[in-house]
Amino acid sequence: MALTLGLWGIGRDRSLWGDEAVSLEVAHRSTGQIWALVHQVDAVHALYYLLLHGMFQLHDGGPAMLRLPSVLGTAAAAAGVALIGRRLAGPRAGLAAGLVLPVFPAVQQYAQEGRSYALVMAAVVFSGLLLLRAVERPSAGRWCGYAAAALVTCLLHEYAALAIAAHAVTLLLARVPRRVWAGWAAAMVAVLAGLAPLAVAGAEQAQQVAWITAPSTGTVLFAAGMCLLGGLCALVPQRQSGAVSLRGFALPLLLLPQAVLLGVSLVHPVYLDRYVLFEYAGLALLVGSALDALGRRLPRLGWRALLAVPLALLLLLPVEMQLRTPQSRSDDLQGTARAVAALAEPGDGVLFMPTSRRQSELAFPQDYAGLTDLALSAPVAGSATLGGVELTPQQITDRMADFTRIITVRTKGKGPSPTAAARDRAKQAELTSGFQKCTSLEVKGVEISLYARPGACPSR
């Protein structure tokens, strides 16, 4: 079911949003260029970019290919959740939990996104499964396997360390013997040693997430609602087949990562729901065990309790269909590129304000064919940046002086970005003094405008 839902509409009309465009463009760089990039920015995604690079070396399949690892990651996570549920509460609870996971709209969204979050969720699930195996029968080999899985999980995204921290709470609740704690502690030493370089690089690149704002009231209420649902499901009497209970495993995974990130965000905003997507694995386990308990309490219902899954899919159908449209993401780079193509003529110049808006050109270069990027100093791929290095303000205005028509692509309603204020102010000052705005189009918060010398605007 996870594969079916993931493959359904995976192409999204070949549209991309900003972060996906970054993944696609970086994946097509050489390994040397990727290595240089992550030393400057996006170190947290280094392993993911290298995985994508290897995949695109085998087959360059565009946006659908970009999203395929996330589809497979979600399917693997669903399988892993089913295995954990089966181990902790029986086969029906496991099957229910595995079926519930891909029903959540957020899981469906990130199952079709060219970013690492679905793969992180799968890695969290399987590191948890290896933890349970090590607790059941501790051995050096099993703890080494757990340590390796936990390290890969954290290297895919360092915030996944919160899921590994949740494992410590699970062990506390299970009151495991000292030898289990010794094995877990040894595994954590290895994980921390392997993660240290990424943690240092991430701290040095902290400015990259400075744009994140404090969680809104709606965000906090939604997170609280998830926790409340999980808590209510945990109150339902459950089977327990070993030292670790299902609620003792699932509740920390659901509660701790959210609580920590939301708490930190009171001082320094760092919370985004996608950073803790793996919390849905904990919620799925709790909902699945509750469905199993319902089937056991009502013998006539039995396995029919699982009919709640297709019912939920039907009730969520409008949401599921909307998620598979270009309009479902925060921006639409294909729509932006098409708007540029509609306004531009060969020989026109193009300016991006801020630099990040250049993502539409990098993702859909065919729509910018024949245009001159007036601010770009050199090809983006070799610049060790995501958006390229721009010329000085004076050099930009000097180049603008040679053009009769210029297309601008800018974030609507915002002034110059703090990091490029001087360049963006110079661009706008030259446009205001030497050009007139002919027409504009808007696509998902991006304004695409045609400027021309006085008297050179096309007749309507």
From TrEMBL:
The protein's Enzyme Commission number: 2.4.-.-
EC class name: transferase
Record-level Gene Ontology MF annotations: glycosyltransferase activity
Any single Pfam family the record assigns to this protein: PMT_2
InterPro entries linked to this entry: LipidA_mod_glycosyltrf_83, RgtA/B/C-like
Domain Glycosyltransferase RgtA/B/C/D-like: 49-196
Intracellular or extracellular location(s): Cell membrane
Segments passing through the bilayer: 64-84, 116-135, 147-174, 181-203, 209-236, 248-271, 277-294, 301-319
Membrane topology designation: Multi-pass membrane protein
UniProt keywords, alphabetically: Cell membrane, Glycosyltransferase, Membrane, Transferase, Transmembrane, Transmembrane helix
PANTHER family, alphabetized: MANNOSYLTRANSFERASE YKCB-RELATED (PTHR33908), UNDECAPRENYL PHOSPHATE-ALPHA-4-AMINO-4-DEOXY-L-ARABINOSE ARABINOSYL TRANSFERASE (PTHR33908:SF3)
Protein name: Glycosyltransferase family 39 protein
